[in-house]
Design a protein that fits this description.
Largest sheet: 4 strands, parallel
Distance between the termini: 69 Å
Strand order of the largest sheet: 1-2-3-4
Strand content: 5-15%
Number of domains: 1
Radius of gyration: 22 Å
Helix content: 40-55%
Structural class: alpha/beta
Length: 162
């Protein structure tokens, strides 16, 4: 419908962010065919992704991520930094690196109700420290992917040997 209306005259990107707790064949088709970018909210540690009965949904989310991959749906993740996972930045990085999933982090922000997130909030110093660690790990990965070139060889010595 967008193509019919826009006739290719306006560029657009359809994005969606999901907690991926419900996934059936129709939703897989919609995510694959209807969106250019799919983001999955996944904190990995701390147990904040729960259903209305308080049951942790992480195993379901991980299983649904596998289903997305099997269906050829490309996606990235967002991990909310909070009291339950702020000390596990390295483990979070290792998980996403091993899985080959791009991700970003977002510090916990105010909830819709006063004091909704008080038990999970981080101090400004904790957020800065976590984001600095995040940056350190990213820079280390970049250095592994793109090591500095070796010492430059002098072309003069090559010519003098001839």
């Amino acid at each position: 419908m967008q193509e019919e209306v826009l006739h290719g005259k306006v560029s657009y990107v359809n994005s969606v962010q999901t907690n991926l707790t419900v996934l059936d064949d129709e939703r897989i088709r919609l995510l694959r065919d209807g969106f250019h970018q799919v983001g999955v909210s996944m904190d990995l540690y701390g147990g904040l992704r729960v259903n209305t009965q308080g049951r942790d949904l992480q195993d379901r989310i991980l299983s649904n991520m596998d289903r997305l991959r099997d269906a050829g749906v490309r996606f990235g993740c967002i991990t909310v930094l909070h009291r339950g996972n702020v000390d596990r930045i390295d483990e979070i990085w290792r998980f996403y690196e091993r899985a080959g999933i791009p991700f970003r982090t977002l510090p916990l922000f105010d909830g819709s109700e006063p004091d909704q997130n008080t038990a999970h909030e981080l101090t400004a110093d904790e957020i800065i420290s976590a984001l600095c660690r995040h940056a350190d790990l990213w820079l280390a990965r970049v250095r592994r992917q793109f090591p500095p070139a070796g010492p430059e060889r002098s072309t003069r010595s090559d010519h003098s040997a001839r």
